[in-house]
Fold:
Amino acid sequence: MNQSERDLEAGEIVEVPGLERWQVYQRLRELEIPCWCATGQPLRVQIRTPAAATQLWSVFRQLQAPRQEQISWLERCWRKKC
Structure:
């Protein structure tokens, strides 16, 4: 077991299917959220802060919510700031 695997032992296991798993993994790495994933294994994510939990939720929302729902959500956000 390498160091990153040991660091993630206390992490959450996130079940993400096929290609989406790779997209989630890449985005979490970009956000500097510790995560690890092996071939045929679930994605493991270490969530230590409320901000990291929110970012994980946001990444899933971007992949799972229908496009029109995401557009509507963004439009509502923009209207509130004006």
